[in-house]
């Protein structure tokens, strides 16, 4: 062991100090729980045993499905003290002020522990025990049950389901014009009506049902009787059918002219109460509006069909909703 030159000694001191500082920092961070996990998602790879476990969902289907999946992601992450991450593309980034960064994960089914739903429209209570897995989780399925996320409703709406400003402006403008056009008072209430047509009309044998016309009259009469001064704001992927079948001479109906499903969803979310039909998009139009929701008694799910058998009514429809 020879004598060290002053520079060498300095260098050694520097190295030792660096190591000490690094160790101290690592130690500190491993005990700090992020207060707002969404702002501090650890995008870098695993740095230690104490990193919060991550959770991702599969984005299957279309807009309405994606919202169910996103909501289940947030709810399940909260429930298990995990960090929600996005690993697949979703159109929801164009709809909401998106809060969760996307991670580049080549193959989530390999890198995460896969947890499959049991039925597309039923709650899987296994999600309450994901923290016991002690692994990153990839939740796969349609996840269509309010039970995944309803306990976190307030946070979901305030933080995660905030529509883009331009969509909200457009929606509010439409509602104001509807009121003027129908010569309604400032006290009139907006009833959002979503009428799912398209694929749902032709898929009865599989278990989707188009909702028959009388339901919409039952539902409109219900709100007219209850609130008197109302405006029905109708959005649909089959507006021609709606105009042919609904009596807009007698009923105060305003058809959406926004021409875009995302804008329609924002519009329906601004209404005071809702009439929904079938499908996840309809479901969300009611949930996001947050008032009373009326849904059809027997259109969906059709019993003894492949789709009908994958739903549990009590898990799919909120207990407080009105069945007409
Ligand atoms: C009904 O909805 C409109 C438009 O979103 C809103 O301005 C109004 O405050 C709501 N009325 C009630 C009674 O909640
Ligand atoms: C569905 O099938 C079950 C068993 O096959 C039968 O008991 C039931 O009546 C059927 N329900 C309807 C609505 O067809």
UniProtKB/TrEMBL annotation:
EC number: 2.4.1.-
Pathway membership, UniProt: Protein modification; protein glycosylation
UniProt keyword annotation of Glycosyltransferase present: yes
Keywords, ordered alphabetically: Glycoprotein, Glycosyltransferase, Golgi apparatus, Membrane, Signal-anchor, Transferase, Transmembrane, Transmembrane helix
GO terms under biological process: carbohydrate metabolic process
Membrane topology per record: Single-pass type II membrane protein
Domain of life: Eukaryota
Compartments (UniProt record): Golgi apparatus, Golgi stack membrane
Listed GO CC annotations: Golgi cisterna membrane
A GO molecular-function descriptor: galactoside 2-alpha-L-fucosyltransferase activity
Pfam families noted in UniProt: Glyco_transf_11
Annotated transmembrane regions: 12-32
The protein's enzyme class: transferase
PANTHER family: GALACTOSIDE 2-L-FUCOSYLTRANSFERASE (PTHR11927), L-FUCOSYLTRANSFERASE (PTHR11927:SF9)
Similarity section: Belongs to the glycosyltransferase 11 family.
Name recorded for this polypeptide: L-Fucosyltransferase
Organism: Mizuhopecten yessoensis
